[in-house]
Amino acid sequence: MKNEKIIEQIEKWQKCDYVHALTCGSNTCDNVALVPIEKDGIVILVCPTKNCDYKQSYLPECVLSADVEGIEDSIGNIINKIKRNN
Ligand SMILES: [Zn+2]
Phi/psi at 18 (nearest 5 deg)? Predict the structure, then answer.
C-alpha cells in the first residue's frame, strides 16, 4: 500500500465513530487520537499534543485492512432501524 493510501486509511479509521481510535501511549495524554504522517519514507503515528513527543511506527493490520465505510454503513443502518422502532 502506498503511503498516501495508508495515511488516508488511518485518517478514516481515526474519524470513524464506531471504532476505537489509535491513541497516544504517553501517561500524560488521555485518549488523544494519533495523527498519521510520512517520515523518512514511512508512515508513523504522532501525538498532536503540544510538548508530547509520542510516536509509534506500529500500524495495526486490522486498521489498515478495515472496511471503514462498511462499518459505518452497517452500524448506521442498525441505528436507523432502532430509531424507526422507537
Ligand atoms: Zn501524547
Answer: -105, 5
Grid coordinates of 31? 485518549
Range of the domain at 55: 3-84
- Locus of grid cell 491513541: 23
Q: Tell me the CA–centroid distance for residue 85 and ligand 1, in Å.
A: 42
The count of structural domains within the chain is 1
pTM of the model: 0.89
Distance 76 CA to ligand 1 centre (A): 31
User: Residue 52 is placed in which grid cell?
Assistant: 508530547
Number of Cβ within a 10 Å radius of residue 9:
19
Distance 71 CA to ligand 1 centre (A): 27
User: Per residue in 46-81, pLDDT tens?
Assistant: 999 999 999 999 999 999 999 999 999 999 999 999
